[in-house]
Design brief:
The complex is a heterodimer of chains A (393) and B (1023).
Chain A (H helix, E strand, L loop, with lengths): L15 E4 L2 H4 L5 H25 L5 H25 L3 H10 L9 H21 L3 H9 L6 H7 L12 H26 L12 H30 L7 H29 L2 H11 L3 H21 L6 H27 L8 E3 L4 H24 L15
Parallel strand pairs in A: 1-2
Helix pairs in contact in A: 2-3, 2-8, 2-9, 2-13, 3-5, 3-9, 3-14, 5-8, 8-9, 9-10, 9-13, 10-12, 12-13
Chain B lengths: L3 H18 L2 H7 L22 E3 L6 E3 L3 E7 L8 E7 L5 E6 L29 H4 L1 H5 L9 E3 L7 E4 L2 H10 L19 H6 L20 E5 L4 H14 L4 E2 L7 H10 L7 E2 L6 E5 L10 H13 L5 E5 L13 E4 L6 H14 L5 H4 L4 H6 L11 E3 L30 E3 L6 E3 L11 E4 L2 E5 H9 L4 H8 L3 H11 L6 E5 L1 H4 L4 H15 L8 E2 L12 E2 L26 H8 L22 H7 L7 E5 L3 H4 L6 H8 L6 E6 L11 E4 L8 E4 L8 E5 L17 H12 L5 E7 L4 E4 L2 H13 L14 H7 L1 H8 L8 H10 L1 E3 L6 E2 L2 E2 L12 H4 L27 H4 L7 E6 L13 H6 L5 E4 H7 L6 E6 L2 E10 L6 E5 L12 E3 L2 E3 L3 H4 L32 E7 L2 E2 L1
Parallel strand pairs in B: 7-37, 8-9, 8-22, 11-12, 11-19, 12-13, 22-23, 23-24, 32-36, 33-35
Antiparallel strand pairs in B: 1-2, 3-4, 4-5, 6-7, 6-24, 10-20, 14-18, 15-16, 17-18, 21-27, 25-26, 26-29, 27-28, 30-31, 32-39, 33-36, 34-35, 34-39, 37-38, 39-40
The chains are: A mainly alpha (393), B alpha/beta (1023).
Chain lengths: 393, 1023
């Protein structure tokens, strides 16, 4: 031995150092990232399935009728979280009237253009997806002084219906599909712009966010939309179970393949920074990954949906809750993998959401409920026959 | 039962109302476009800086980018004093980037020589560490104060009122009832003396019965934290002109015992360092490459370079803590020693080395430098010099002189009047007349019992067996022997590097001395790959100008210092009076430190206890004793300082409202390190001669009415002028021709000091070239020159500007070595035996200190062993501290980029201890000491000796922006990032024998950081 005094070199394990608090030390993202990524993802999952329904000419039922109001509420809440997380919220709007160059260097500029467009589209389609005579009658029942406002907010939808014409419908559905893909993937894409965080420099998280979004969109359609329908109309309704159930199953499967494939890829080809981030998933964050995502977000819902249990409404509800939780968890895990990693190798950050971000999360839930309730109240109580029991279809 | 529509309405109202209401802050910022940002400078590169240098693609030539000013200055984020290249936006004046100055040896292995054109350094920038890079945030700290503040309410109430410069100067100078407007009943009627009133008493003795205490003007005390080089001399010059000896920097908080010990072995020097890159084996004692040291990044860089060479450096770290930058690979090892027992390990090695004849006997036998050089040596020691060993003899403890030995009159120079046993004749002989002497001698000379210095060391080391030493220090005897064998297997290319970990103990001086003996035994001094005291510096004090002299104030400042350093208790009137009364004069009320200097930690408790006298005016400059001194941040001392009756006037000069300056009456805003002046020598590690010049590359504080940026120097100048001190105003500084120059602004003084540096003697390749046109342009020196051109003679400017443009004056790297010899050598006698120490008595016990190092158990001031003071059964752990690579002691909480990397320090606990105590990694635990408890996060690690816990200093602030305060009636919110982490200094062990004194090394004067016993508790449950 070269040096008789050499003692065995201790391998110092990565030790947790402190809470990961966005507001404390300028880490780029906080719990609010999880919020808006999840909210916009859910909206995208919902609207892409809605678009497929329209292509399949299923322009009836709760899925067609109530998806868009739900998406609108989700998108608006997503925006609230985005505005609360960024340091210069006004900058997101500033460029609209001062010019594109005010958004130079910010990858979020693509979202600044497309996501409001997405919101506007969903808002418009909320009214376009309604029974036009019923909408017209509802507006006519209003005080004449209020009718212009109602027309304005409904974009004069009582006078036309673009979805009834094949040409415009094709274009609109195309735009909806594009934006529905964009919304869930975008939060994954702009993570890639955070140079220097190796694990984020991968398209995997965009695919992961997309797959989880479609899964939760399908299951929200299955369990949430009937509830909305009842709240809006007072009548029971049901979604189409089988297509949504299997859409969710396939999406969860894709999600699992992407995650484990990604981890395999890192193990095989990843840089040292990738490996150290992945070590967090395998080491200190392994229990978090296992329980929140693998068990609650993947295995549990798959068991509930693939087996005959999946025909049972409470099983669908449990699966939906699991998928929604897992969808949130996978976003936070990707976030933590990039932010908790200490480049000096000193250890890793532990994640404890700050009170402020927890409060914003709570307010987001309330705001979501409020917006949705406003929309359901504002929309005319639908008497359309297609909202009958599933057996009628 | 609520119906469906009502439910929806409730949801709508509640959800939208509360939900959106919760985002009010978001809307508040969104709607008025307050946070709209600005247009990016570039479509792709955004707001990224453009480069400092531009390359013409056609010709390939580099040119300076006129958007930027580049200035070279010196860092002060820690004490490494690295050269900086600061990039400043020429339009906004804002610093954008800090990198290393390529002309400075700390930042590059092969740094640029003074004659290297600036353009050639464009792509050859030096490095600085994370702290250096983060310095921008120290300068632009949002908690910076830029105008003078006066307390409102009692001291420490956290309420401040901005005041004007003239009011500040008038009040603190003229004194009177200056606190009548504070609303503090305790001081409203206090008649404060002020500088003018105190200066008026300059002819009065402090105590008529104790003339050795000097004048009343010693009641002015300047307690400086990190203040060094010419800036310290600026403050000292003011003190001397005022008539006070009490100007201090912080050294005993750091490692003064190590400086004192080195000065005993290497007379007049305070630091030795290994020639790292050429050494084959180094033992790092109480430090390690990459830890705080002189200089940190250079140490790490040199070690990495040396380690990477084929057959290169091997090293061992002796430290209870394995630092991150320390031990890597099979060329290095870690010996986790028990805290404070380094002396035992070193003495065990000494014993083995002597018993096995592994020392360089021929080298040690040369009694003088001439004899040594005649035999190819580069230095000599006192190994063979004889010491009177008879306790009954009046010369006991002194070196035997020629006269005492019966050899007639010896040389007039006392240091040369030594006697040896000549190896040829076997008889006593004057050292000067001997070419070779016996080194291990015990016997009688002229009837006097004597021993050689070497024999004394051998006997001292032999008091314990290697196994006993192993038991004391907790390192296996086999490893001790292996270490000693390895150390003595590389000829002169081995060295010991010793620093803070060894000396911050009650026995710190003796520990360091023992380590230093190892270097003497192998004769590595002045050799390539061995040990050096470095190349020194280009003097700033004299030459073209006498910047220190104030002839009219000569003799005014004298007497015993408040800290009782550099003075013998036995010379005091107090001692003599007790002896005259037949009383036992020991112990003194508080210890005296005749061998030490800068005993900063004794200032506050001495002032409160009025021993040896009280303080009228206390100035804190970058001083934070409550935060940085072990045991001083306690309620009792803080309450005493808050009482204006104890110290009537406290003025802090700080860049923020700090952890201690928050208790001042006034705070004078100071410039950050990027706004200051200072001339400071390079450190021995870099081997060559050099002086860095720190000068204001930006200035951010408000201006005085006549346009000077407010800072410490302008404060002292204006006080001096209002009081009428000599050495200030229009007749202040004398040049070499006898002409007087004014001192009305800081540049009047510092530029002359810079001229002294620029024109200091040096070899042909050390000369300073004239400043070039490009340097003037890049450094933007034209306006600087214009502003201060009357401060120097016209012919001096080209070289002075050249020094500023390069951030100092450095000897070329090529001059470091001459083959196997170092260029800069120190040739005075190196000492095994510290005569001065042997003749000095401990002012508490009356016993003599030891002239030859030995294993000394750590005790309190009156000799209680620490194990008896705090029983290890109740207090099973020992606290040590460390300065990580990301923090200085107290200064960097504003550096958020560093806090991003390490937001919390935590309590590091050994895996073995954690397992035994059931503590989990990341768990909150209480650290309990005999003086209190603090809560922190447990970090369970492998790299620390079981039984030891540690924390990185620099965290857990209560000032420096960590807590709220009022400024002009406006509430300034504290930032919890600065509060984060744990700080244990306030609950560290105090000495029960002396009021409000931390444990201390009474020989070397260091305060003790590493001997506080503790236990860990978990949520109230004792574990």
């Amino acid at each position: 031995m070269a040096n008789p005094l050499t003692t065995p070199q201790p391998v110092v394990p990565a030790a947790p150092l402190h809470e990961l608090l966005n507001i404390d030390h300028s880490r780029p993202f906080s719990l609010l990232f999880g919020n808006y990524s999840w909210l916009l993802g859910a909206a995208g999952g919902l609207t892409i399935i809605w678009a497929i329904y329209v292509i399949a000419r299923r322009r009836q039922g709760v899925e067609y009728r109530f998806t868009m109001p739900l998406a609108v509420a989700l998108i608006v809440c997503g925006f609230l979280n985005v505005l609360s997380e960024v340091k210069q919220p006004s900058r997101l709007i500033y460029g609209y009237y001062l010019g594109w160059q005010y958004w130079d260097t910010a990858i979020i500029k693509y979202g600044i253009i497309l996501l409001p467009l997405y919101l506007a589209l969903c808002w418009w389609l909320t009214f376009q997806a309604m029974d036009r005579p019923a909408l017209g009658a509802a507006i006519l029942r209003l005080d004449p002084r209020l009718r212009p406002f109602a027309d304005f907010f409904s974009l004069w939808s009582r006078h036309y219906s673009v979805l009834e014409s094949a040409g415009p419908r094709r274009w609109i559905v195309g735009v909806v599909i594009f934006l529905s893909l964009f919304a869930p993937m975008y939060s994954g894409i702009f993570l890639m712009n955070e140079h220097g965080v190796a694990i984020w420099n991968s398209p995997a998280q965009a695919l992961l966010f997309m797959a989880s979004a479609v899964a939760q969109g399908a299951l929200m359609m299955l369990v949430v939309l009937p509830a909305l329908a009842w709240l809006a109309t007072g009548r029971g309704a049901q979604s189409l179970i089988a297509p949504l159930r299997w859409t969710a199953v396939i999406s969860i499967g894709i999600e699992a393949v992407v995650w484990f494939g990604w981890m395999w890829w890192i193990g095989r080809f990843g840089s040292i920074e990738d490996l150290r981030a992945a070590d967090l998933y395998m080491g200190p964050y392994a229990p978090t990954v296992f329980w929140n995502w693998t068990v609650v977000g993947v295995i549990g819902p798959l068991v509930l949906l693939v087996t005959p249990l999946g025909r049972w409404r409470w099983a669908q509800l449990l699966a939906a809750l699991g998928v929604m939780w897992g969808s949130y968890a996978v976003r936070m895990l990707v976030l933590i993998g990039g932010e908790a990693f200490i480049r000096s190798g000193a250890g890793y950050q532990t994640f404890t959401p700050s009170t402020e971000t927890l409060l914003y999360t709570g307010f987001s839930v309330l705001a979501f409920a409020g917006i949705l309730a406003v929309l359901l109240l504002a929309l005319p109580a639908d008497r359309a026959p297609e909202l009958g029991p599933p057996s009628a279809r | 039962m609520i119906d469906r529509r009502s439910f929806l309405k409730a949801c709508a109202v509640g959800g939208v109302g509360v939900g959106f209401g919760g985002f009010y802050d978001t809307f508040y910022h969104l709607v008025p476009f307050n946070d709209r940002g600005r247009k990016a400078l570039h479509r792709v590169y955004g707001n990224s800086n453009s480069p400092e240098w531009l390359r013409d693609h056609a010709t390939g030539k580099l040119a300076h980018n006129p958007d930027w000013t580049l200035r070279h200055t010196v860092d002060q984020q820690c004490h490494s004093e690295c050269g900086l290249r600061v990039k400043i936006d020429r339009k906004t004046g804002r610093v954008q980037r800090i990198i290393g100055n390529p002309y400075h040896p700390n930042t590059l292995m092969d740094y640029a020589s003074m004659d290297t054109p600036l353009l050639e350094t464009a792509a050859r920038s030096g490095t600085v560490c994370a702290r250096g890079n983060a310095g921008i945030q120290s300068a632009y700290d949002p908690y910076r104060i830029t105008v003078p503040l006066k307390r409102k309410g009692p001291r420490g109430s956290g309420q401040w009122q901005p005041i004007g410069w003239e009011q500040l100067i008038r009040e603190v100078t003229d004194g009177g009832k200056i606190f009548a407007d504070t609303g503090d009943p305790a001081s409203a009627n206090l008649d404060v003396l002020g500088f003018k009133g105190l200066y008026a008493k300059r002819g009065e003795p402090m105590d008529p019965n104790a003339p050795e205490l000097g004048h009343r003007t010693n009641g002015y005390v300047f307690q400086g934290g990190r203040i060094v080089g010419s800036r310290l001399d600026f403050a000292r010059r003011f003190g001397r002109a005022f008539g006070s000896v009490n100007t201090y920097e912080h050294v005993n908080v750091c490692e003064v015992s190590h400086h004192v010990a080195i000065a005993q072995v290497y007379p007049g020097k305070h630091m030795t360092k290994p020639d790292i890159t050429e050494a084959e084996f180094i033992i790092f004692w109480g430090t390690q490459p990459g830890d705080a040291n002189f200089p940190m990044q250079t140490f790490a860089k040199y070690t990495a370079e040396a380690r990477a060479k084929p057959g290169g450096l091997k090293y061992v770290v002796v430290d209870p803590l394995l630092g991150r930058g320390g031990v890597m690979g099979d060329r290095a090892a870690w010996l986790p020693i028990k805290p404070g027992t380094d002396g035992a390990l070193a003495l065990a090695m000494i014993r083995w080395i002597i018993e096995n004849s592994r020392y360089d006997a021929d080298y040690l036998s040369r009694p003088t430098q001439s004899a040594a050089e005649a035999h190819g040596e580069l230095s000599h020691t006192d190994a063979s010099h004889l010491v009177v060993d008879d306790p009954q003899h009046p010369g006991f403890g002194r070196f035997l002189t020629a006269k005492l030995a019966g050899l007639g009159a010896g040389p007039k120079e006392p240091d040369l009047d030594r006697v040896v046993i000549d190896a040829g004749s076997g008889k006593p002989a004057a050292a000067e007349s001997s070419q070779q002497a016996v080194i291990d001698y015990s016997g009688e000379v002229n009837g006097i019992r004597v021993k050689s210095a070497f024999a004394r060391l051998r006997e001292s080391a032999s008091k314990h067996s290697v196994e006993e030493y192993a038991q004391i220090c907790g390192i296996d005897a086999e490893k001790i022997v292996a270490l000693a064998r390895e150390f003595t297997s590389h000829g002169r290319k081995a060295a010991c590097e010793t620093y803070r970990g060894v000396c911050k103990h009650p026995n710190g001086y003796y520990n360091v001395m023992a380590v230093l003996m190892l270097d003497l035994l192998i004769g590595n001094f002045n050799w390539t790959g061995g040990l050096t005291v470095g190349g020194g510096e280009y003097g700033y004090k004299s030459g073209r100008y006498d910047v220190l002299g104030v002839p009219e104030a000569k003799g005014l400042a004298y007497g015993v210092k408040l800290s009782r350093e550099e003075a013998q208790y036995e010379d005091s009137s107090e001692y003599k009076a007790k002896v005259a009364k037949g009383e036992n004069a020991y112990p003194a009320k508080r210890p005296w430190f005749p061998l030490s200097f800068e005993v900063y930690t004794e200032l506050l408790p001495s002032a409160i206890q009025r021993y040896p006298y009280g303080v009228d005016i206390l100035v804190w400059h970058m001083a934070t004793p409550f935060y940085s001194v072990p045991g001083q941040g306690n309620e009792g001392l803080i309450a005493a300082v808050k009482d204006p009756k104890n110290i009537p006037l406290i003025i802090a000069c700080d860049i923020v409202v700090g952890d201690t300056s928050m208790y001042a009456d006034y705070i004078v805003p100071d410039g950050s390190f990027l706004e200051r002046w200072c001339h400071i020598g390079t450190l021995p590690t870099t081997l060559t001669k050099g002086s860095g010049v720190r000068w204001p590359v930006i200035e951010l504080t408000e201006k005085t009415p006549d346009g000077r940026h407010i800072c410490l120097e302008e404060f002292l100048i204006d006080i001096a002028k209002r009081v009428g001190l000599p050495g200030y105003g229009d007749k202040a500084i004398k040049d070499a021709d006898g002409r007087w120059w004014p001192l009305n602004r800081k540049e009047d003084w510092y530029l002359k000091a810079t001229a002294n540096v620029a024109f200091a003697p040096g070899g042909p390749d050390e000369q300073v070239p004239d400043v070039t046109e490009l340097e003037m342009q890049v450094n933007d020196l034209g306006s600087f020159h214009e502003a201060f051109k009357d401060a120097l003679k016209p012919e001096e400017w080209p070289k002075v500007l050249s020094v500023l443009a390069k951030g100092g004056r450095m000897e070329p790297r090529r001059n470091a070595r001459q083959g196997d010899k170092l260029t800069h050598r120190f040739t005075k006698t190196l000492h095994f035996y510290a005569e001065e120490v042997a003749l000095t008595r401990n002012s508490m016990t009356g016993e003599r200190f030891l002239g030859t190092t030995a294993w000394v158990e750590p005790t309190t001031a009156l000799g209680t062993p620490l194990d008896k003071l705090d029983d290890p059964k109740d207090w099973p752990l020992t606290i040590i501290t460390f300065k990580g690579a990301l923090q200085s002691h107290s200064r960097l909480p504003s550096n958020y980029v560093l806090r991003q990397i390490m937001p919390d320090n935590g309590i590091q606990v050994a895996v073995e201890d954690a397992r035994r105590l059931g503590i989990r990694d990341g768990e909150k635990v209480w650290v309990v000491t005999p003086h209190g408890k603090r809560k922190g996060t447990a970090c369970v690690v492998e790299g620390i000796r079981p039984g030891v816990i540690t924390f990185s200093v620099g965290y857990g602030h209560w000032g420096y922006g960590a807590t709220n305060y009022q400024l002009g009636g406006k509430r300034i919110e504290g930032d919890r990032v600065r509060r984060a982490g744990i700080h244990l200094n306030p609950i560290m062990r105090r000495d029960p024998d002396v009021e409000q004194m931390a444990l201390m090394d009474l020989v070397g004067g260091s305060v003790v950081f590493f001997n506080t016993r503790a236990r860990l508790e978990r949520d109230g449950a004792h574990v």
